[in-house]
Specification:
single chain; 386 residues; Immunoglobulin-like; 2 domains; eight-stranded mixed beta sheet
Length: 386
């Protein structure tokens, strides 16, 4: 099979200038409103939400809220809303434990308890377990269930790789507690559909060994924190590339210019020498295609991005930034998906030694969507390995 690769090159030169009294936030919280008004929920800006396809749904209302994972570290929440299938939440969880126990890798870490969590302001019951799938890190699975007197069962299944469960638990708990269900809209949806069970089914996680960035864990908002509200752009992953969330499928610093899609020399640390180029390899996914016609009136496809970046110190002061940097338009006969961006920042003036954050923003011109990548770097005048 012949593969066609698209090479996108973005080379940037920056001037080191200090700007003061500007704030810098790595991760923010957004309120997502489901398109039909069934619920609202708060998620961090480095998470995305998508509706499970009809063929794979385990409940009439079934959504995945997924952290933009960094390889073999992962986190997500599956949210399921249905008519009650059990007399109470405890009975539902006992059924789930019975199902899980058929697998040799299942371990019940915390038994069923009620009162720790709420779902839609209703008391909920929960249990914590761990599982080990072949080729993966051990995963922790927190099942939370509530039943309302009005006849709505809500399940939230919080899953992380075991190595990040503790730091991510407050984030998962905040997401779960933020759920606000519109009972009228949900009841109308449930009248149209029914299911026989809501046993949790966990998708396979990529096993590439990528670096997990703990600075991407958002702080939990205080009661007086302003949270950005936005309409959701919930995708159905069954409808093709155009409906997928525009995001970075993979990104890493590299020690030299990439030679092709997946052909790069990965840098083993985030440490750079003063004056050294900062080359970030990015694999965007979920972008959309424009169309043009050639001289024979045949339809061709266009792929086009632009980019911003901002560099800040560890106190959050933005030191320099550039906006609206163009990436050359690609015209192709096929809807290529194997696209990469080598994003190079040149230290025109060597950076002073220290720790910095870089916020990269990639814009898809055809869809108008964007995503952010946040990286921490260290500038050191000591010799570093690539």
């Amino acid at each position: 099979m012949k593969f066609e690769y698209i090479f996108l090159t973005l080379a940037l030169s920056i001037v080191w200038v200090s700007f003061f009294n500007q704030s810098y936030a790595q991760v923010t919280w957004n309120t997502i409103e489901e398109e039909d008004g069934s619920f609202t929920i708060q998620i961090p800006s480095n998470w995305n939400i998508s509706e499970v396809s009809d063929a794979e749904k385990l409940a009439p209302i079934d959504y995945m809220l997924r952290y933009n994972d960094k390889g073999n570290s992962f986190a997500w929440i599956e949210l399921l809303i249905s008519e009650p299938l059990y007399p109470n939440a405890s009975a539902a969880l006992e059924s789930y434990i019975g199902y899980y126990q058929q697998f040799d890798d299942f371990n019940l870490t915390k038994p069923i308890e009620c009162g720790t969590y709420t779902l839609n302001d209703e008391p909920a019951c929960s249990f914590l377990s761990s599982q080990q799938l072949q080729g993966e890190q051990r995963r922790n699975v927190l099942n939370v269930v509530s039943l309302t007197p009005g006849g709505i069962q809500t399940d939230a299944v919080f899953v992380t790789s075991s190595n990040i469960y503790e730091p991510f638990l407050p984030v998962g708990e905040y997401i779960i507690n933020s759920l606000d269900i519109n009972s009228t809209a949900v009841t109308q949806a449930l009248e149209k559909k029914s299911i026989e069970n809501i046993e949790s089914e966990l998708p396979i996680i990529p096993t590439e060994n990528r670096t997990m960035l703990f600075d991407e864990i958002p702080s939990i908002p205080k009661d007086n924190t302003t949270i950005q509200r936005q309409h959701s752009e919930i995708s159905d992953n069954s409808t093709g590339n155009a409906s997928q969330t525009f995001r970075s499928a993979y990104d890493t610093f590299v020690s030299s210019d990439p030679l092709g899609f997946g052909v790069y020399d990965k840098k083993i640390s985030n440490s750079f020498r003063p004056g050294e180029d900062l080359i970030l390899y990015i694999e965007p996914t979920g972008f959309e295609y424009g169309t043009v016609s050639d001289e024979g009136n045949k339809t061709l496809y266009t792929i086009e991005f632009s980019a911003d970046f901002a560099i800040s110190d560890i106190e959050g002061n933005v030191l320099t930034e550039q906006l609206g940097l163009p990436v050359s338009e690609i015209i192709t006969h096929h809807q290529n998906k194997e696209v990469f961006i080598p994003f190079t920042i040149t230290q025109t003036t060597p950076f002073p030694p220290g720790n910095y954050f870089i916020n990269y923003t990639i814009h898809d011109i055809n869809s108008g969507k964007s995503f952010d990548i946040v990286k921490e770097i260290v500038i050191s005048d000591q010799t570093q390995l690539a």
